[in-house]
Amino acid sequence: MPAPTNMFKQRLKQGELVIGCWAGFADPYPTELMATAGFDWLVIDGEHAPNDLNSITAQLQVLEGKHSEAVVRLPVGNEWLIKQMLDAGAQTLLIPMVESAEQARELVRACRYPPEGIRGSGAALARASQFAAIPDYAQTANAQICLLVQVETVKGMNALDEILAVEGVDGVFIGPSDLAADMGLLGQTEHPEVRAAIEAGLGKIAASDKAAGILALADEAADLYRAWGAQFLAVGIDVVMLAQAARALMASWDAKR
Ligand SMILES: O=C(O)C(=O)C[C@H](O)[C@@H](O)CO
Predict the structure, then answer these.
(1) What does the pLDDT look like over 92-101, one tens digit per residue?
(2) Residue 238 and residue 215 in contact, taking contact as beta carbons nearer than 8 Å
(3) CB environment 28-42: b (16+ within 10 A), e (fewer)
(4) Binding site membership of 175 for ligand 1 (Cβ less than 6 Å)
(5) pLDDT tens across 59-102, in order?
(6) Domain range 7-254, CATH class
(7) What does the domain layout of the chain look like in residue ranges?
(8) What are the HpcH/HpaI aldolase/citrate lyase domain coordinates in residue numbering (predicted)?
(9) How far is the CA of 137 from the centre of ligand 1 (A)?
(10) pTM of the model
């Protein structure tokens, strides 16, 4: 019995548009709720949400067998964190702040068991192998790992061609907020210069053998990004949705007082 099939990776390879959402409450309960909405993927955010290995594992557990595929974003891309998250059962990783082909190659190696990579061998303890209930997990796991790298700085965008040439990177996600900030346009993701960089970047990625991804928090941006080549498109953040709805509701009653 091989490692579980990574349906998110399979859908990307088939060229499907997959719609996702951020899951930022760092708790399995709201993440399980978000999965009932039918998103194709949910980002369990270890970068900007207060997640740790245990909270990420609990969210992987509630998403098991659901339509919404788990995409685990690490706070940083390093070998031991990748090892922990893959052993916990994550099959799709989103790694922020990738700025060079060498960095991308190191991430690929960290995601793979030898001889292709350096992922430590501990499948007997790992949820990923169903605690060794999948006897040939180590031999079949590499093919089911989906590595998504975030390019979100000027340096990263300038290295995009080289990053796109790295075998083992399955998708490239452009981070509009961090890219705008690094361009000296903090908070201005709709600035013409940021939009131009995003359009060029998504176009390059879509023309490569990788999938293009991005986050849009408004329909206007989502439509543009889709037209520019985005294939894994996140269209919301659960924390933002709840905050906005709660404040709007209270404001409506404040107005009635
Ligand atoms: O830079 C970006 O934009 C992203 O990487 C997405 C954001 O980090 C997301 O967490 C919303 O702020």
Answers:
(1) 999 999 999 9
(2) no
(3) bebbbebbeeebbbb
(4) yes
(5) 999 999 999 999 999 999 999 999 999 999 999 999 999 999 99
(6) alpha beta
(7) 7-254
(8) 19-244
(9) 33
(10) 0.97
